[in-house]
Amino acid sequence: MNCPNCGTKLKPTAKICKKCGTQIVANQGAVASTAQAATQQASPQVATTVVCPNGHPMHLSWTECPQCIASARKDLPPTRVSQSVRGRPTEAGSTSMALLLGLSGANQGKTFDLKSGETVLGVDPQCDIVLNNQYVSKRHASLNIEGARCVLTDLSSRNGTFINNTRITQVELRDDDKIRLGVDALFQFKRLR
Questions:
Q1: Which of 3, 38, 88, 189 is the most exposed place for a label (fewest CB within 10 A)?
Q2: Which bin fits 35, alpha (ψ -120 to 50), beta or left (φ > 0)?
């Protein structure tokens, strides 16, 4: 079986393409949309990306295009951080270096403060940013801010870490980069300094 998105050869039991992150759903699994259900045959179901009305790629599970949301908000003043991250409470006098804006799922609309040093993201309660997502690993990725640099590193996650839909192992982030952990945990990186 091959990935319908990128063509990579997959194991018959694969649930996610290791190269591009496309979710593979067995024929007995839930169908992503009623339009797809009407056209399905006996072949495996594949949850691929779709295109929003403005032409941006987006995952079938997303109700809004994160790129359209982000571009619509560019003219607005910065949002005041109103939510502390578990394990990293906002302290009086502490200096945020960057923000991580949740664009999908349970984190949509949440703003995470990033300070100098390392911030680990994952489902483990010991992580600095704890995510509730079945496709995110215990210790999925880390963000390391040193001065003006912010480096994102995949911590050997099972379903990958992606920047602007490209799988990475380590990359220096730029303002407005889209970070995807696994299949559908999507964030936008915003530099403050």
A1: 38
A2: alpha
Q: Tens digit of pLDDT for each residue in 120-165?
A: 999 999 999 999 999 999 999 999 999 889 999 999 999 999 999 8
**Residue 16 DSSP SS3:** strand
Nearest 5°: the CA angle 76, 60, 101 is: 30
d(CA 136, CA 18): 13
Identify whether the C-beta of residue 91 lies closer than 8 Å to the C-beta of residue 102: no
CATH code of the domain in which 84 resides:
2.60.200.20
Query: How far apart (Å, rounded) are the C-alpha atoms in residues 38 and 20?
Result: 26
Look at the block and give the residue holding tokens 């730029």.
174
Angstrom distance (rounded) from CA 120 to CA 97: 15
Q: What is the pLDDT of residue 47?
A: 38
In a domain, 40, yes or no: no
Answer yes or no: is 63 within a domain: no
Does residue 111 or residue 7 have the better pLDDT?
111
Domain that holds residue 136: 78-191
The string of pLDDT tens digits covering residues 40-77 is 433 333 434 566 666 666 655 566 666 666 544 444 44
> In angstroms, rounded to a whole number, what is the distance separating the alpha carbons of residues 70 and 143?
21
Residue 106 is assigned to a structural domain of this protein: yes
Q: What residues form DSSP beta bridges with 77?
A: none
Q: What is the mean pLDDT of the chain?
A: 74
Asked whether residue 70 is domain-assigned, the answer is no
